[in-house]
Amino acid sequence: MLGLSYAASIRVGNELGAGHPKVARLSVMVVVMASIAFSILATILVMALRYPLSTLYTSSTTVIEAVIALMPLLAISIFLNGIQPILSGVAVGSGWQVIVAYVNVGAYYIIGLPIGCVLGFKTSLGAAGIWWGLIIGVAVQTVALIVITARTNWDSEVLRRRSSDCVAPRQTRAACWWSMMTTSDDRLGALFGGHCLLGALSGSSS
C-alpha cells in the first residue's frame, strides 16, 4: 500500500495545484475504494489460510495454536493498515502534514501505546493485549483521517493552494492572472484571480 499512498499523494497534490477540485475529489474516492478492496481481499486470504500460514516456519503445535489464535488480530491490522496509509497520502498531498503529524502522535503515543501496555502487562492478554493497543491506535488514526477527508471542501483547498502561491514574493501579477485564465472552472478562476491580484498588490506595496 506504500506505493499507492505515494501515488495518491502525488495525484491529489497535482490536481489541487492545477485547480481541478472535482478531479482531486474523484482521485481520493478511487484510491480509497481500491485500498478498501485490496484490504478486504488480503484479510479474507489471511483468515482462510491461517493454518497453512502458521505451519510455514514451525512444526510446534503450541506455536501453531498461538499463531492461529493471533490471526484475527493480524487480519484486523492488515485491513486498517491498508486504508490508513492511503488517507495519510491524501492528507500529505493536500498539504495537511501538520495535521497528520498531530493525528499520528495522538493516536499512537497518547492512545494506542498506553492501552497496549495496560492490556499487555496488567491483564492476562499478554501479546494479544499489546497488539490490541496497536490496533486501537491505528483505528483512531484511520477514523480521524476519514473524518478530515470526508469534511474537506476541495474547492476551498484549491483556493488555499492558489492563494498561498500568489502571496509568494516572486509571484507577479501576470502569473496570477495566468493562473486565473488557465483555471477550468470560471467561478473558481475569478476567485483565484481576485485572491492572486490582492496578493500581488500587497506584495508590491510592501
Q: How would you describe this structure in keywords?
A:
9 helices; xenobiotic transmembrane transporter activity; elongated; mainly alpha; 206 residues; disordered C terminus; 2 domains
Fold blueprint:
Elements: H1 2-17, H2 21-48, H3 50-54, H4 61-93, H5 97-121, H6 127-150, H7 154-166, H8 173-181, H9 186-205
Helix pairs in contact: 1-2, 1-4, 2-4, 2-7, 4-6, 5-6, 7-9, 8-9
Protein name: Protein TRANSPARENT TESTA 12
GO molecular function: antiporter activity; xenobiotic transmembrane transporter activity
Keywords: Membrane, Transmembrane, Transmembrane helix
Let me know the largest β-sheet. none
Rg from alpha-carbon coordinates: 23 Å
Shape: elongated
What is the residue-averaged pLDDT? 80
Q: Alpha-carbon distance between the termini?
A: 47 Å
SSE-based structural type: mainly alpha
Count of strand segments: 0
Spans of at least 5 consecutive residues with low confidence: 168-173, 175-206
Please provide the ordered H/E string of secondary-structure elements. HHHHHHHHH
Strand content: under 5%
Number of domain units = 2
Helix count from the secondary structure assignment: 9
Question: What level of helicity do the residues show?
Answer: over 70%
